[in-house]
Amino acid sequence: MIEVGRALLSDDIIEEHFLCDVLKCKGACCIEGDSGAPLTDEEAIQIEKDYPLFEEYLPQKHKKEVEKQGYSVIDSDGDLVTPLVNNRQCVYSFYNDNGILQCAVEKAYFEGKIKFRKPISCHLFPIRITEYRDFDAVNYQQLRICKPGRQCGASQKLPLYKFLKEPLIKKYGEEWYKELEIAADYLKSSR
Question: What InterPro entries does the record tag this protein with (predicted)?
Answer without folding.
Answer: Rv0495c
